[in-house]
Amino acid sequence: MSERAAERSIVFPVRAPGAVAVVLLALIGLMALIGPFLVPYDPIATNPPIALRPPSSAHFFGTDQLGRDVFSRVIVSARVDLGIAFAAVIVTLVIGTALGAAAGWAGGWTDRIVSRLMDTIMAFPLFVLAVGIAAALGNSIFSVVIATVIVNLPLYARQARTEVNRRRGAAYVEAARLAGIGPFAIVALHIMPNLAPQLIVQASLNLGWAILNAAGLSFLGLGIRPPNPEWGIMVAEGGAYIISGEWWLFVFPGAMLLLAVLTFSLTGDALRDRLDPRRA
Amino acid sequence: MNLAVGTVPLVAIEGLSIRFGGDERLPTVDAVDLAIGRGETVALVGESGSGKTLLAHTIAGILDPAARVRAERLEFAGVDLRSPNAFADLRGREIGIVFQNPRLALNPVRTVGRQIADVVHEHRGLRFRQLNAAVMAALAAVRIPEPAARARSYPNELSGGMCQRVMIAIALAGNPSLLIADEPTTGLDTTTQAAILDLILEHARARRMATLFITHDLALARAYAERIVVMHAGQIVEEAPTDRLFAAPRHPYSAALVGATPANAATVADLKGIPGKLPDLAASPPACRFAERCARVIPRCRSERPVLAFDTRRHGVACWMPL
Amino acid sequence: MTLLEVVGLRKLFPLEHGRRLHAVDGVDFAIDEGESLGIVGESGSGKSTLARLVTRLIDPSDGEIRFAGREIGHVPAARFASTPARRAIQLVFQSADDALNPAFTAARNIAVGLGRTRVGSDALARVQDIAAEVGLGQEHLARRPHQLSGGQQARVGIARALVSEPRLLVLDEPTASLDVSVQATVLKLIDGLRRRHRIALLFVSHDLEVVRLMCERVLVLYLGRVAEIGCAETVLRAPRHPYTRALVAATPGHGRPQALVGEPVSPIDPQSQACLFHSRCALAVDRCRSERPLLRSVDNRMVACHRADEAARPNAPINVPAGC
Q: Is B283 near chain A, with CB under 8 Å?
């Protein structure tokens, strides 16, 4: 880095996209954590007389076809969608990385089996897989999480496999073997810290997709069921009202989805810049 | 200018500075003068951070676009290199370049024969059978056995030494009057190194071609160059005909380099390291950039940069307290 | 007292179609306590493979390795890790980008030499001591490799190898990527440490001059076989094997280097009954193509050449210490 850029990064911890990402991240995080306690209306309480009212000072985002406050429903959905996405990404990160690392380190049959498994998974589109799992395990949030976990496994497994394989012959790894350190410790404690930055970036970008996945599945009727609020469902139900002009039913949940995905993409980009490739 | 009186230099550089970043930053290469005569073999010797590669790249016209060059005089065969299109004709034709790590410098997805053909066609406009014959002749000139078979090989199928011969063939294709060889034997075996350097010198003699060797290896420079230019931290500290430099180095850094070269030491105890490290250009370095590492330093060294001064035998040193 | 003994060591790497790469093909040598032996060879000589065999990073295909009297060549690598011999043989790597773990501080990198991933309060003193001994300041210990200079990184690598108090130190081109002035300092450091701690050195390098300075004896390796072995001064001043002569003649520093023409034979399934240097040897005769020369004593050293008895051509004198 030139010195001027270095100075800048002391004064402003992140560059512009990163600053926006941090703000948005805080916003969405707050929404998810304490939103449900602060919303003005009960998100599932229906109130038919005031159905389909446009946005006003009483109802910031208007009301839906059952008189529910759209604003409250949008805010509460954050917890649901983010919850599913985080759960799925964390689980898939751990399992995928472990599988990939094992394949990258051991080679041979371990590698072949893991790689073919990942190839098989990649052959399935998310929705087909999700429907299949929902049919097997019942239509619940759990199935949605499992489906998202499985579909994203190859992403982490491949990355971990390549990176571990690349470092397997590194001199510092040989030095650790020379010192009598076992392979599990070498992969987990010596090699992983070098991959951590890339994995974090990957996970961050993946979160955006996971949110979309969850919303998409519930859009199709899998996972979250009405009357529970969730951005995907709200977009699905609101789609029926486009023609009749009640735009606020799907625009606001759609915009929140957009915002959430954007936030995690920006965060991933900002992290990629900050977590310097020098560390690899 | 350090050439015999009356000769017109092939490369004439005066006051060349290369900077990265804004104007207020100190230049990486600091006001150097260099002249290379036709047919001369010069070695530019320095360790990492000496600026030798930057200097060579400037002459070759392949300097990093982020670098800013300022010079009182920067000419090749009379052409002012500071003008925008100066290099269009020169690069690859009048000036040939051989890089280190030949396998990396060659295109991995084109056969060796094609790569030579590309250059020959570019500079001599030959086609079809004439082009093919020229490629075979080029391969034979660098002594590659079985040229017809080798021409169909890809770089990764050839040894390091073979790849370097191909690079030399490419560099010589335009019949240059100057060949710049940047650490051409790094990564090659000692026995191959000798063969490659012999090859370069043989062509240099036959074509009356000037050669500029960039190297960190003093022993190598001594074996192959007529004249040696020693650089430290972007400054030229000494310049002399080879035997004069080794008979009596006058700059403390040159002497230290000689003392650090294993070939010149009888035992480990005779080896001499150099204390300190390269000056931080952002932290008010001394005017002579070797000052903080020098045993003969005086206050003047820090405030006033010594000028490269030549004696009557073409031996120049930039030092207030030369040996 | 003999510390390391290698007998008939071979390492063959399997390739496709049942072919095998003979990286190390019948090597014998021994090192005494505190002695230094240099292994010189060019690319494809097998010197790096030899270094990894001796340090038991890889398993030999054939032959024996005896350390302090105990056979260690046949112990599977995993079990070897828990024997005391493991700590007694250490390796210093070439100072490339991957010699040190980029995610660890210098202190943690050194601690790896003790078999640890964290420094730990009990090992801290030892790490600090060894760091000071190799010339690293306390402020360097907290830095990551990319914040250290090439010379400092080399010192960390040496500290890591020494922290477990080994009796045999194998060095694989430890200064190859360093500036010559930094190399001088590091070589002096290694030599000083070796004398102070009476450590035996196995110094692998392509650089004849460095080996001459650092080693009492030298072994010249060509395509996995020993060409010549003896006192460094004897072998390098007046080499008897044509390959050694070619190597010495090609080394800059003493007159105009002479090239060695021809290409080496392939190390894949080479003829076991031939001298592998015959394709490039000016003295080659029919016998060289049909009978593998064995190491025999000629003129105070061991040479594997049928024609080693021929009068040695005078070489430019190289400054070497007398005695061995």
A: no
Residue ranges of E strands in chain C: 2-14, 20-32, 36-40, 62-67, 70-71, 89-92, 168-172, 200-205, 217-222, 225-231, 296-298, 301-303
In a domain, C171, yes or no: yes
Q: Is any Cβ of chain C less than 8 angstroms from the Cβ of A79?
A: no
- What is the dotted CATH code of the domain comprising B11-317? 3.40.50.300
CATH of domain A60-279: 1.10.3720.10
Strand order across the C225-231 sheet? C89-92, C168-172, C200-205, C36-40, C217-222, C225-231, C301-303, C296-298
Query: Is there a contact between A185 and C100 if contact means CB atoms under 8 Å apart?
Result: no
Q: How far A85 CA sits from the closest chain B CA (Å)?
A: 43
Give a yes or no: residue C151 inside a domain: yes
Per-residue pLDDT at A276: 62
For every residue of C117-157, which 3-state class applies, written as one string?
Answer: CCCCHHHHHHHHHHHHHCCCCHHHHCCCHHHCCHHHHHHHH
Predicted ipTM? 0.88
Domain that includes residue C71, residue range: 2-219
B157 touches chain C (CB under 8 A): no
Residue C24 banded pLDDT, cuts 50, 70, 90: very high
CATH code, domain with C80: 3.40.50.300
B262: closest CA among C9, C310, C236? Answer: C236
| Residue C164, in any domain of the structure | yes
pLDDT in tens, B107-147: 999 999 999 999 888 888 888 899 999 999 999 999 998 89
**For residue range C230-270, what is the model confidence (pLDDT) as tens digits?**
999 889 989 999 999 999 999 987 778 888 887 788 889 98
pLDDT tens-digit map of B197-235: 999 999 999 999 999 999 999 999 999 999 999 999 999
What are the domain boundaries of chain A?
A: 60-279
DSSP state of B26: P
